[in-house]
Amino acid sequence: xxxxxxxxxxxxxxxxxxxxxxxxxxxxxxLFFVWALVKKRPKHAIASLIWVGIVFWFFNSAYxxxxxxxxxxxxxTLNYGILSxxxxxxxxxxxxxxxxxxxxIRKLKRVY
Length: 112
Description:
two-stranded antiparallel ribbon, 2 helices, alpha+beta, 6 strands
């Protein structure tokens, strides 16, 4: 009889720090939005909403990598952080695909 594998989580970066950065950024922009509403400044409110969109875009873009991988009998789960819409779950028997791309803003380093 095969022994079932216990679920394990591997932290790639500090997940708590990454979630803290995400929540601090969103909170700061929302604070400016509330301030603009209280002061009745519609241009500042619109600018704050645009910044909320930028915050969500950045934390869901390729510039922000995943923080944790959970591997267990149910599959593989990638956790990108609390504000990410990209959290993925794959079956344990998913085929592997190696992708090569350039890293960094200047695109000088190759990653796999």
